[in-house]
Amino acid sequence: RKAWYILPLEWDKFAEPGVSRILDLGCGDGDVTQRIVDFIANCWRDKGYKGHRIDLYGYDLNPSRIVNARTHCKSPHPDIHLHFDVCDVVGKGIPHSDQYFH
């Protein structure tokens, strides 16, 4: 997969108890998305934390990339939920309120 070059700088913040939603704009095939959720699950395991619900939303303009993301990305933890959809962020915006991801 292609995400090997992305450094997980400050990704530990994604694993904190107050985080409930994460947005990955331009998620493509979900390579980085998968690395993020694996990182979160490993942080929880290493800290002995059972976890909490996190919804990670991946949006991309290319429908074939979303098909690939849905096919290849798997949640490593029962409380981490993945959602992938085609979205024209520039033309139409994301299908959530302005404060949904804060």
What report would you give on this structure?
It is built from three helices and three strands. It is an alpha/beta fold and 102 residues long. Strands 1-2-3 form a three-stranded parallel beta sheet, with helices on one face. Helix 2 (63-72) links the parallel strand 2 and strand 3. The longest helix has 17 residues, at 31-47. The radius of gyration is 13 Å and the shape is globular.
Q: pLDDT average, as an integer?
A: 92
What amount of the residues lies in strands? 15-25%
**What Rg do the Cα atoms give?**
13 Å
* Termini gap: 29 Å
Low-pLDDT ranges: none
Envelope shape: globular
> What's the total count of β strands?
3
Q: What is the fold's blueprint, element by element?
A:
Elements: E1 21-25, H1 31-47, E2 54-60, H2 63-72, E3 80-86, H3 89-92
Parallel strand pairs: 1-2, 2-3
Give structural attributes.
3 helices; 102 residues; globular; alpha/beta
In short:
Helix content is 30%, strand content 19%. The protein contains three helices and three strands. It has helices at residues 31-47, 63-72, 89-92, and strands at residues 21-25, 54-60, 80-86.
